[in-house]
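Human: For the file, kindly provide a plain-text protein record giving the amino acid sequence and the backbone structure tokens, at your earliest convenience.
Assistant:
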Amino acid sequence: MAAAEDGSYGRGAAILSVGIGTTGLITYGYFSLASHNLSESDYGGITLLWSAVFITVSVLYRPVEQLLSRTIADRDARGAHGREHLRVAATIQLTLGVLFAAGALALRGPLQEGLFGGSETLFWVLIVTVLAYAVSYFARGLVAGSRRYAAYGGLVLMEALSRVMFAVAVGVGIAEGQSVVALGMAAAPIVSLAVVPFALGRRWRRSGPPSAGHEPAEPAEPAVAGEAQFTLAHGTGFAVSVLAIMLAEQTFLNAGPLLVKATEGEDGAALAGFTFNVLLIARAPLQLFQAVQTSILPHLTRLGARGETDPFRRTVNVTLVAIAGFAAAVALVMLIAGPAVMDLVFGGSFDYDRLGLVLISLGMGLYLAAATLNQALLARGQARQACGAWLTAAAGFVGFLLLPGFDDRVLQVETGYVACALVLCGLLLALYRSEASDGPARP
């Protein structure tokens, strides 16, 4: 049984790696085209819109994706029936979407004038894009928990292709301007949902979450009432902890450009764009690692539900070793040719520092290791404990960025990123080892 599960996880990760890896390259293309065809200030606006969108959707909606993925996998392993977990997740997602819309409209002045430099188009693209992603992330949780990994890869690939076509249109002269490039962000999640009906189809309507072609697993123990009766309080407790983790995650990925924009005056937008480009070394591998995150959570959840401790630990250890090798390879490439690669991809008049690029590469490896340990803790139901580690490290990162006395703001971001990623990885590793002695825990 463990060997079959390991094979399922490996195949799922491989399928997703192809789709999401391609997605990462296409995303690079989107920003490369935007960087070459827009002014530095307009490109800075695009990167700020991107940061605002993905801070918001990751914080608000990924908790429900993770909730659905974990819950569907757990219920499948335990033989539980019913769809109350879907109603709970939908209620949470709808509530979050309404709260976002109300808050954004109430803060239209600061957002439109302060963040987007008076651009009404960028403000409305933010609204539409974030609301569209509420549905997209719910769909991701359904297909991930059901182990429809090809469908998940197809969804995110369709999203990236839809988005990049708007940048291509500007690049070839069919259209022009910042607004067209920005509209690609709003179109992407809407178009990508076309994949979902084909992924689930009549089988979902007949029998609930499908099992991706695998035989239904024999539960390690009878389904318990607490799991079968999935309540709003149960789902909300997990989602709130993961929401805080997502907030901390987005702080790591986006606080740098946003704080640079806020503190650097007239040159803030252009320097924020440059900082964003540097952090893409850390961000782009996360696109690929999304394949691992998406498949490892339901996989570890199923192993935990069955009490299979050794395969659980082996999966985590193998993933950490693979991440270490990948990060070392990226750091070596940045050491040898990092500035030349960045100039080729993004152009512009900025001077990329070789040491800073290597630092970001090492920080990326530490961050990915932390994300793996986080998924293991979520699978065990330790979301609240993991949340504390994330908030501590993220607060340290922001505090470091606010320290005065740094002439090189980009180097400050790079140094803070790698240092706080190390702290985060250490905290989660200590928590993982302490919990491992007791075996997989239940929520």
Observations:
- Residues 232 and 291 are 28 Å apart (CA to CA).
